Amino acid sequence: MYSKPIYVIDGARTPFLKSKNRPGVFSAGDLATQAGRTLLARQKFAPQELDEVILGCAAPSVDEVNIGRVAALRLGCGHKVPGWTVMRNCASGMQALDSGINNILAGRSNLVLAGGVDALSRAPLLYNDKMVNWFADFSQQRSPGEKASQFLKLPFGALLAPVIGIMKGLTDPMVGLLMGQTAENLAYRFGITRAQMDAFSVRSHKRVCAAQDAGHLAAGGGEVEALYDAGGNAYTLDDGVRRDSSLANLAKLKPFFDRKYGSVTPGNSSQITDGAAWLILASEDSLKKHDLKPIGRILDSQWAGLDPAQMGLGPVHAATPILGRHGLKLDGVDYWEINEAFAAQVLGCLAAWKDAKYCRQELGLDSSLGELDQEKLNVDGGAVALGHPVGASGARIVLHLLKLLQRKNAKRGMASICIGGGLGGAMLVEAL
Fold first, then answer.
1. Helix or strand or coil: residue 21?
2. Which whole-number Å values give the CA distances from 195 to 179, 182, 199, 209, in the listed order?
3. What share of the chain is helix, strand, coil (3-state, %, to 5)?
């Protein structure tokens, strides 16, 4: 629980654009700037009146390393507004919010722009060590003859087999498992079937389609703002959603992470995606100074650690302490957002809360927390259909949850996310 109120004034995100196996139209800086400009243009304060800009990013480009500062300058915040970048893997956007909250609580800031971004389609292809050493040796040759001799030693196999940067980034360095392999662990641990994963995934697509058709996830609907490329083309919707998603279609896909025994497929996993999301955080003093009307408050936050091989259960470990502090049960929260890294991962969280042994041994509870009503969970779909631009997702679920609570005339919501490396993050929010 915070010592003073933390208000959310407004927020906006880009459409999430699915990777087409080649660099996307927009850099991470482009995504953050376009979403931020639209958001700041409708505020009562000038960008220069922000106290700081904090941006989460898991995979910044080498020419946008401190992308928080790049975004702040491109947004017109001026030279005096600090901009900085945070990284907590899948929860980088949520970490940006938490960092802004802590600075407001400490009295260092009153008005903060915080969010997250990633352009995962632009994750680099890397040369392996053999190729890098060849380049090093080639650069040391001086005469044309020496260079020609070294060129004849070019390892064509290494040249044509680059390291896929995103695969390396999605592999845990401690346990040597891809994130999808950790989802397979949860499926095995809790007996989650392929049919259950696929059914969850179909539901995610159907719910996103319904939300788009109702205007809740369409550009101009209060959450998503259109992107425009250099040719003037507009991108108005999250484009990874499949309107033809069905159990029959998903059943055709082969397991990807454990090809022989597994059940986790590209169809029941989140997509490789580009996107950005921002929220404006404010203290009570800023509300009075700028005559701001908040859409909600962030009431509490929690970070947790667990076995990296079971990282998908991070939401359980982060959200449960918040529930305890506020005297809440699972059904005491009106709506939940649990980021859908994998269908097996979300279903694993639900199974863990129901499992008395898990709750006693892993969470220190006397009994199970019971069953989370799935009609309260990800009611407009999630990352299986929308995609998971790693740096942005933690901010997206908080923003969407606040918009959902307003729409449903509901009070409280919990946003939670699993984090590569064996971590979890959660925030309890309240609509105003």
1. coil
2. 20, 18, 6, 21
3. 45, 20, 40
Instruction: Looking at the structure, give the CATH architecture of the domain made up of residues 179-217+298-426.
Output: 3-Layer(aba) Sandwich (3.40)
Distances (CA, A) of 381 to 4, 194, 307: 32, 19, 27
Q: Is 415 helix (H, G, I), strand (E, B) or coil?
A: strand
**Rounded Cα gap, residues 300 and 303, in angstroms:** 11
Average pLDDT of the chain, as a whole number: 95
CB atoms under 10 Å from CB of 153, counted, come to: 9
Q: 0.85 cut: is pTM over it?
A: yes
Q: How many residues does the chain have?
A: 432
Domain boundaries, the chain: 128-161, 179-217+298-426
Q: Distance between CA atoms of 267 and 385, rounded to whole angstroms?
A: 9
| CA 412 remoteness from chain centre | 21
Report the DSSP beta bridge partners of residue 210: none
Tell me: pLDDT of 20 over 80. yes
The phi and psi torsions of 77 (rounded to 5 degrees) equal: -75, -10
Question: Is residue 404 classed as helix, strand or coil in its secondary structure?
Answer: helix
Where in the sequence numbering do the catalytic residues fall?
Answer: 90, 388, 418
Residue 31 parent element (H or E): helix 28-41
- d(C-alpha 266, C-alpha 343), whole Å: 10
* Residues 21, 24, 28, 31, CA torsion sign: negative
